[in-house]
Amino acid sequence: MVVFQNVSKVYANDTAAVNNLDLTIEKGELVVLIGPSGCGKTTTLKMVNRLIEPTSGKILVRGKDIYNENPVQLRRRIGYVIQQIGLFPHMTIAQNIGLVPKLSGVNHEKINQRVEQLLEMVSLDPQLYRDRYPKQLSGGEQQRVGVLRALAADPDVILMDEPFGALDPISREQLQSELKRLHDSVQKTIIFVTHDMDEALKLADRIVLMKDGQVVQTGEPEELIRNPANDFVREFIGEKHILRHPEVVLVEEIMMKTPVVGELQMGLAKSLQKMQEYKVNTLLIVDNEDKLVGILPMKAAQQGIRSGKKLKAKDMLEPVRESVTPHDTVLHAASQLDVSSFGFIPVIDENRHLKGLLNYASLVNTFVDVIWSNNDPINEEEETENGYNSTESMDDISTAR
Asked: Distance between CA atoms of 139 and 315, rounded to whole angstroms?
């Protein structure tokens, strides 16, 4: 969708803001340009819509050399969102959003339809917001409108230059989530500039880390975190992210691999006996192919026994409502665990084979790693004296749920 071929930008004092950049951004990608101040990320972004002209090289958008196009027409086909938002104060919200389609000759009725569609997309009621002016909106609402204005003409490419940098942390986080959701639904090609690594990790399909006008490393967030190319990348990303970042730690790394299980034909008395033996209050019930069928809680087994009927585990099962796969991230698992009624979630593969179990103890360990990753480890003597060096492992504790 966007291709940089040996692109350089050199200023009059022979300073190279961008130096022989070769970069391809695929259709539908959300690519984040990040790096220290002066690394060339904003210059790279602005060369795409010709707000800055390169000294040499080619930039192709949709396979066409942008320097063979009228720059005004080019900019109308490329969405652009900046930190200062840039809404026109004398125009209503509807007029701000519909400005580019209007300049492109779209009729009034279609513009109105598009404005309402976009406002609804970000949960701004058109009846309440379309006739307001920018000064009547909060900073977060104004920035939402700025994003909508960039989407109004349905461009293939959207450029975003630190769009959330001036917002308070809560508004910023909300808009990051909103942008991620929008990107998943509309699949636009987005080039996003930021200096915030947490923001890059949350949003990016691919991160391009720059220094001195050149790309130092590019790849998916997990790739940079797990395999930093050099000390600069490691230092810029931050040790806390590289060691254990919950957005990239996988379930298979922290799950219990041998949960306590039962069989479908197991009697309820035997099921209770097994729970007592392993100090758990549930059994994961599997079939003869080790596929997870359901969950047998202790209370259900006790009720079945009190009924006086000859019931088996299969007769008192509760369905598996929440589960994760070994390749899901810890953050996804945390969201599933939060709504689980059992205090744990089973880990299954695509064929429902039981692979393990994840509980709060496993997650706490992971998040503690994140918090303490930059601190000196406690030495063994201190651990023993404070009771941390227990013979009972965390896995053993987690089976006692």
From this structure: 56
pLDDT in tens, 266-310: 999 999 999 999 888 999 999 999 999 999 999 999 999 999 888
- 2-244 and 252-363 in the same fold: no
Length of the chain: 401
What span, in angstroms and rounded, lies between the C-alpha atoms of 246 and 118?
Answer: 33
Best CATH choice for the domain 2-244 from the list 2.40.37.10, 3.40.50.300, 3.40.50.1010, 3.30.390.10: 3.40.50.300
Q: Which residues contact 98 (CB under 8 A, 6 or more apart)?
A: 111, 112, 114, 115, 152
Provide mean pLDDT across the span 233-259: 76
Q: pLDDT at position 367, please? A: 62
Residue pair 285/292 in contact by the 8 Å Cβ criterion: yes
Task: Indicate the domain borders of the chain.
Answer: 2-244, 252-363
pLDDT for residue 194 is more than 60: yes
Q: Are strands 30-34 and 206-211 parallel, antiparallel or unpaired?
A: parallel
Pick the CATH number of 252-363 from 1.10.260.40, 3.10.580.10, 3.40.50.970, 3.90.1170.50: 3.10.580.10
Task: Return d(Cα 242, Cα 374) in angstroms, integer.
Answer: 11
CA distance 282 to 284: 7
pTM across the whole model: 0.59
Rg of the chain in Å (alpha carbons): 27
